[in-house]
Design a protein that fits this description.
Order of helices and strands: EHEHEHEHEHEHHEHH
CATH topology: Rossmann fold
Strand content: 5-15%
CATH class: Alpha Beta
Structural class: alpha/beta
Helix content: 40-55%
Number of domains: 1
Strand order of the largest sheet: 3-2-1-4-5-6-7
């Protein structure tokens, strides 16, 4: 996918930038001429990505509101503006919901949902003063049309979608654009095999470029590829339509879990 240069000279912060889709966002923005801050809870991974693309690295835990707020304030102070914040950091916990430890539920919600809320509010405070800026929150197809065996992840991403939609309306009068990315499967380390067996994953860089192009066109909810839009449409029309397919996913997950726990 060709470069657009739509972010040339812009200052961007990408959370979860040390790998997967976050690293792809960072790379794509740098290729467009943006000044990028690659933020990740793992400072070494952030530094590796930043060194490769000529960007700045930062270590941040997005589940700590103070850390993300301080990072965004420092970025604004250093570069003179804060033009784009991509709240991308995310984790997952899968399995039968009753088998997932409560601590895992809490951690996923803190990172995926509360981390996005903290990053968005901190960014909006700065961007309101500027009178401009873009906030891109990473949801997921799973936040629009439920995929079984990903309870904490799906719940957190559904929260991201609705939070972002509301914030978009509330921020518009201040010249701030808020969008939510809801791609289908992207090839990352957190993607479970019982999902990819039905829906092949996309290359992270392709997904990042496509999301950024849609953001530049003013899209508020960014959903792709076709199967993701189809699932969303069908789920809105009638949740029962996808029931048989969800049962296939459940059965495949149980087979996978049984094989993993069987004596070697």
């Amino acid at each position: 996918m060709r470069r657009t240069n739509q972010f040339k000279g812009k200052v961007a912060v990408v959370t979860g930038g040390g790998g997967g889709l976050g690293a792809a966002f960072s790379r794509a923005l740098a290729a467009d001429g943006a000044r990028v801050v690659v933020a990740d809870i793992c400072g070494d991974l952030a530094a590796q990505v930043a060194d490769a693309i000529g960007a700045e690295a930062a270590q941040v835990d997005v589940s700590d509101p103070q850390q993300i707020a301080e990072l965004l304030k420092a970025t604004r102070a250093r570069y003179g503006s804060l033009d784009l914040v991509i709240n991308n950091a995310g984790i997952t916990a899968g399995g039968m919901p009753w088998d997932i430890p409560w601590e895992a539920w809490e951690r996923v919600i803190r990172v995926n949902l509360l981390g996005v809320i903290a990053g968005s509010l901190a960014a909006l405070k700065i961007m309101k003063e500027q009178g401009s800026g873009q906030i891109l929150n990473m949801g997921s197809m799973n936040g629009l049309a439920l995929v079984p065996n990903l309870g904490p992840y799906s719940a957190s991403k559904a929260g991201v979608v609705f939070f972002s939609r509301g914030l978009a309306d509330e921020a518009r009068d201040f010249g701030v654009q808020v969008a939510v990315g809801c791609p289908g499967n992207v090839r990352t380390a957190i993607l479970p095999s019982h999902v990819t067996s039905l829906m092949p994953p996309m290359d992270p860089y392709y997904a990042a470029r496509r999301i950024l192009r849609a953001l530049g066109r003013g899209k508020q909810i960014i959903i792709f590829p076709f199967y993701a839009r189809l699932w969303w449409w069908m789920d809105r029309l009638s949740p029962q339509l996808l029931g048989p397919l969800r049962q296939i996913v459940v059965k495949r997950a149980r087979i996978r879990d049984a094989a993993a726990s069987a004596p070697k």
